[in-house]
């Protein structure tokens, strides 16, 4: 599993990105996935830059 027992951090992050609570069933929705992908893009790039 990607985050193991720390998955709550992922839900908090997703909630902050969307500005509302996010639940497990939300993450199965393609529209929510696309919105999260769009909003998390710059954070993801920053993380990748810091790994190199």
Describe how the helices and strands are arranged.
Elements: H1 7-18, H2 30-51
* Arithmetic mean pLDDT: 91
Kindly, what is the distance between the CA atoms of the first and last residues, rounded to a whole number of angstroms? 24 Å
- Could you say which overall geometry the principal axes of the C-alpha atoms support? globular
Helix content: 55-70%
How many strand elements? Answer: 0
Number of helices: 2
Low-confidence stretches: none
Rg: 12 Å
- What pattern of helices and strands is seen along the backbone? HH
What features would you describe in this structure?
- This protein has helices at residues 7-18, 30-51.
- With 52 residues, it is mostly helical.
- The chain starts with 6 loop residues before the first helix and ends with a helix.
- The model has no long low-confidence stretch (mean pLDDT 91).
Brief descriptors of the model:
65% helix, globular, 52 residues, single chain, mainly alpha, 0% strand, 2 helices
What's this entry about, in short?
The chain is mainly α and 52 residues long. The protein has helices spanning 7-18, 30-51. The chain starts with 6 loop residues before the first helix and ends with a helix.
């Amino acid at each position: 599993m990607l985050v193991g027992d720390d998955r709550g951090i992922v839900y908090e992050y997703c909630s902050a990105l969307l500005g509302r609570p996010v639940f497990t069933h939300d993450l199965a929705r393609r529209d929510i996935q696309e919105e999260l992908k769009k909003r998390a893009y710059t954070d993801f790039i920053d993380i990748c830059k810091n790994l190199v």
